[in-house]
Amino acid sequence: MAKKNISDKNGFVFSTDPNFAFQNSGPDSSETLAPAKQRLRIILDTRHRAGKTVTAISGFIGKSEDLEILGKKLKQYCGTGGSVKDGQILIQGDQTGKVRAYLQKEGYKI
After folding, report:
1. Over the stretch 56-95, which tens digit does the pLDDT of each residue have?
2. How far apart (Å, rounded) are the C-alpha atoms in residues 10 and 30?
3. Cβ-proximal residues to 41 (8 Å cutoff; 6+ apart), any chain
4. Percentages (nearest 5) of helix, strand, coil residues in the chain
């Protein structure tokens, strides 16, 4: 079986050089900013989801582990499912009010 090509954050998928390796230098390697210094965006989205509504939170700057933790806390607070993909937190349903209240309580700028 052939190895699956995995792209990096810059969009590179394939190289003809057999010794080529992606250089991971980006937001994942940086330290997580304090909540007061972060500006998050809350978007209600239905695209590419078979008409189902999803609340998407983007703009987080920091480690992916911290993003996963914030996503887990938001899912627990809203009492619904969701996931963390491509630097975004996705919460099932129209949870914009609850998400906004939780993030403001934690000190994030909206």
Report:
1. 999 999 999 999 999 999 999 999 999 999 999 999 999 9
2. 16
3. 57, 58, 59, 110
4. 30, 20, 50
Nearest alpha carbon to residue 90 among 105, 104, 72: 72
Q: Which of 7, 74, 2 is CA-nearest to residue 40?
A: 74
According to DSSP, the residues that pair with 92 across neighbouring strands are 54
Amino acid letter, residue 1: M
pLDDT-wise least confident of 2-11, 17-26, 32-41: 2-11
pTM score above 0.85: no
Task: Give the full edge-to-edge strand order of the sheet including 41-45.
Answer: 41-45, 54-58, 88-92, 82-85
Say what the alpha-carbon torsion angle 74, 8, 29, 81 is, to the nearest 10 degrees. 10
- Rounded Cα distance, 1 and 98, in Å: 46
